[in-house]
Design goal:
Elements: E1 7-9, E2 15-17, E3 25-31, H1 40-51, E4 56-62, H2 74-85, E5 90-91, H3 104-112, E6 127-130, E7 136-140, H4 150-157
Parallel strand pairs: 3-4, 4-5
Antiparallel strand pairs: 1-2, 3-6, 6-7
């Protein structure tokens, strides 16, 4: 399976195929609204605004597997992201990223780009960068600020 073979549901329930992102550079992020790293939404939105017209897509996947930091409903999460951070990139329905119920896309991403000590996602705001051909290029730790990824994104957009 490749990145483009997966599907996920947007916040409004609409199913989206990752193949819709062919030819784009994609940053996939597991998010949470009540996390110390939540302000990263600001940096993600800034990246998206700066590079969306050059072919960058950011896909946010809320997850409640880390210290119950994403307890809200999909509607509450969507509202929070828009009101507090003006998020305009695509947000998907809440998913699991680890364990037996992990979303198939995340099982794939973790296999393609393992973490430092294990494949598992260690915390909210782990980021995966995918090139315009659907290859997982790099995995970033949760603490890596979105704007620190700028050079990698720019190199892929060239």
């Amino acid at each position: 399976m490749k990145f483009y073979d997966f599907k996920a549901n947007k916040m409004n329930g609409q199913e989206v195929s990752m193949s819709d992102y062919k030819g784009k550079v994609v940053l996939v992020v597991n998010t949470a609204s009540k996390c110390g790293l939540t302000p990263q939404f600001e940096g993600l939105e800034a990246l998206y605004k700066e590079y969306k017209n050059q072919g960058l897509e950011i896909l946010g996947f809320p997850c409640n597997q880390f210290a119950n930091q994403e307890k809200g409903s999909n509607e509450e999460i969507h509202e929070f992201c828009q009101l507090n951070y003006g998020v305009s990139f695509t947000m998907f329905e809440k998913i699991d990223v680890n364990g037996n119920n992990a979303h198939p896309l995340y099982k794939y991403l973790k296999n393609e780009a393992k973490g430092l000590l294990s494949k598992e996602i260690k915390w909210n705001f782990t980021k995966f960068l995918i090139d315009s051909e659907g290859n997982v290029v790099k995995r970033y730790a949760p603490t890596v600020e979105p704007l620190k990824i700028k050079d990698d994104i720019e190199n892929l957009l060239k």
